[in-house]
Design a protein that fits this description.
The structure is a single chain. The chain contains four helices and seven strands. It is α+β, with helices and mostly antiparallel strands and 164 residues long. Strands 1-7-6-5-4-3-2 form a seven-stranded antiparallel beta sheet. Helix 3 runs antiparallel to helix 4. It is elongated, with a radius of gyration of 25 Å. The two termini are 35 Å apart.
Length: 164
């Protein structure tokens, strides 16, 4: 499948046919659609959002994730999960409040467990350092400097990647 390029929403929608609606509610719809001209399949997620700050105006959003033949079959037979955003880890097209579909790559937002663990470890070190600093009134300037250097060394150690 070619890379995703921005395109006009209405033109794109007019080239689609629905293969199967997977799920439908008042605010969400999941379906498998096919581009009649190109033969490409997409998992289509439609969301209708009620914007209360705008007097209850409904904003509609479309998301189109390209899927290959195996995924189409898996979705048709109910063997593959499809709920947004849990299973939308590949680049896809999404709409906004204008007549465009723009590419979106969610991969930068996944697999951040290591970064989250590092963040927690750094916060823990900061709390420890603050505690030590509060009890450092009897320490000399050299001892305070040493304590500060040790703190930054701990941060450097936390931030080091395994391949470094």
């Amino acid at each position: 499948m070619d890379t995703l390029d921005a395109r006009e929403k209405e033109e794109f929608l007019s080239s689609l046919e629905t293969i199967k609606e997977l799920e439908h509610s008042e605010f969400e719809t999941y379906s498998i659609v096919k581009n009649k001209e190109m033969g490409e399949h997409y998992l289509h997620y439609f969301l209708s959002h009620i914007n209360l700050s705008e007097g209850g105006r409904r904003d509609d959003y479309d998301h189109f994730m390209p899927i290959d033949s195996d995924d189409v079959l898996g979705l048709l037979f109910g063997e593959q999960p499809y709920r947004f955003p849990d299973h939308w880890r590949n680049p896809y097209l999404r709409s906004g409040n204008d007549n465009r579909l723009i590419p979106f790559d969610p991969t930068e937002n996944y697999d951040l467990e290591e970064e989250a663990a590092a963040e927690l470890a750094m916060l823990e070190q900061l709390e420890l350092f603050k505690q030590q600093w509060m009890n450092a009134e009897n320490l000399s300037a050299e001892e305070k400097e040493k304590m500060t250097k040790e703190y930054f060394a701990q941060l450097d150690k936390i931030l080091q990647k395994p391949e470094e």
